[in-house]
TrEMBL record:
InterPro entries in UniProt: FSIP2
PANTHER family given in the database record: FIBROUS SHEATH INTERACTING PROTEIN 2, FIBROUS SHEATH-INTERACTING PROTEIN 2-LIKE
Organism taxonomic ancestry: Eukaryota, Metazoa, Ecdysozoa, Arthropoda, Hexapoda
UniProt organism field: Euphydryas editha (Edith's checkerspot)
Record's protein name: Uncharacterized protein
Length: 222
């Protein structure tokens, strides 16, 4: 009796697994491309909340009520070009005119992240003054507001999507090349088939003509 119940349970479990497998979606090419491209590693501050790591780059960081200064928003160290370093490894961003009036992302000049001013801000008096004013942390990271950090996330999201578009464009070009090669192969096979038919017909005509010539020669000899 117990063995029968166990077998029934196993059958039910197998059917549940089959139903689950049927409901799973097959990953699309776009999803594969998105998963293959590494996400920017500076989209969340160092002392960020665990929920923020699960948010997409297109989402703004929500800040719950908490004591002031518990979370320090920083895009990087002083003197770092965060717009390049934040993208991680991969191709560097190129000159882009998709948003010339900065409606989507604000590209305000930030002196703390100007590499040419790194030497100035590295001097002890300037660094101490910045710490007193709250412009940088003890470990040399430039402090920014939540609004500025969300703008930075938006910039990273745009660059991330640009990389996805570039990869999709490469896939389209590769698929187009493969399609062209297939068409060439089909055309070559068609031409080869026509050539083979013509050659067979020519050989057949030559054979028939030779047979007729032999018959005519035999008749003449008789």
């Amino acid at each position: 009796m117990s063995s029968a119940k166990t077998s029934d349970l196993e059958v039910d479990d197998i059917s549940d697994i089959d139903i689950t497998l049927l409901t799973l979606r097959k990953p699309t090419e776009l999803k594969k491309v998105i998963e293959s491209i590494p996400k920017p590693n500076r989209a969340v501050p160092k002392n960020g909340l665990p929920l923020w790591y699960r948010l997409g780059l297109e989402c703004k960081l929500p800040v719950p009520k908490m004591p002031e200064g518990k979370i320090v928003f920083s895009r990087g160290k002083i003197g770092e070009d965060v717009r390049r370093l934040g993208l991680g490894s991969g191709p560097r961003p190129t000159f882009d005119l998709a948003d010339p009036y900065c409606y989507n992302v604000s590209y305000d000049y930030v002196p703390e992240h100007d590499p040419h001013l790194a030497h100035h801000f590295a001097q002890k008096p300037a660094r101490n003054r910045m710490k007193i004013l709250g412009f940088c942390t003890k470990d040399g990271r430039a402090v920014c507001s939540l609004k500025e950090f969300n703008q930075y996330r938006k910039y990273l999201y745009n660059q991330f999507m640009d990389r996805i578009h570039m990869e999709m464009k490469k896939l389209d070009e590769r698929a187009r090349d493969d399609l062209t090669l297939k068409r060439v192969d089909v055309d070559v096979a068609r031409r080869l088939q026509i050539f083979t038919k013509v050659e067979r017909a020519r050989e057949h005509l030559e054979r028939v003509a030779q047979e007729h010539a032999d018959e005519w020669a035999e008749k003449k000899r008789l």
